[in-house]
Amino acid sequence: MMHIGNEWDALLADEIQKDYYLKLRQFLISEYTTRRIYPPMEDIFNALRHTSYSDVRAVILGQDPYHGPGQAHGMCFSVKRGTPPPPSLQNIFKEMKSDLGIDPPQHGELTSWADNGVLLLNTVLTVREGQPNSHKGMGWEQFTDRIIQLLNERQQPMVFLLWGGNARSKARLITNPAHLVLQCAHPSPLSAYNGFFGCRHFSKTNEFLVSRGMKPIDWKLD
Fold first, then answer.
1. What is the pLDDT of residues 39-83, one digit of tens each?
2. Hey, which residues are catalytic here?
3. Calpha distance 176→154 (Å, rounded)
4. Do residues 187 and 214 touch, judged by C-beta distance below 8 A?
């Protein structure tokens, strides 16, 4: 069963007893037993593990994990050190440079963002090797909807960064006026020039947080 090790365990305790989640769990047991699935099973909930409920200051929503060997490790857009940053992540770094003047790091691991209050949440948390969206519609969307609803209920302000159509479809769940919702195109090379480049979401996030008396995000990656 799911064990995260922080506030999320209690907040999601009822959710993981629901029929849809129990079916999803059985599906995943079969998938991990018979196929190559990413991320590794022990990394599925890394985003929640690194960013507890009360610590969230910003949420970046992705689609589903990278589907190549050695890439996904449970945080959207992030890859472990030693793995070349994929094109979408390279474009994120380009926008960060343009917006904040921060040079791209020598790696693509975003763990320090997560530890700094940025929840790096995919809407679907697992995928078959080489088959993007292969676990779409199996129940993860309902689970991650619940995470977003719980965050929406929180009165402490946060920023939701919705990049691309899949993430933007979740905007309907964010109804609390305490929060800021930023939307733009996906950073993929196919769409980055349609509004991701120039969105300035990094600086806008920090401007909002500071205006609410909160610490800005340290976007610099060591």
1. 999 999 999 999 999 999 999 999 999 999 999 999 999 999 999
2. 64
3. 8
4. no
What is d(CA 7, CA 29) in angstroms, rounded to the nearest whole number? Answer: 25
Q: Do you know the residue count of the chain?
A: 222
* Residue 194, number of CB atoms within 10 A of its CB: 11
Rounded CA gap, 149 and 140, in Å? Answer: 14
Residue 111: Cβ-neighbour burial (10 angstroms; 0-12, 13-18, 19+): middle
Residue type, 151: L
One-character DSSP codes across 64-118 = S---STTT-SSSTT---TTSPPPHHHHHHHHHHHHHH-PPPPSS---HHHHHTTE
DSSP classification of residue 218: -
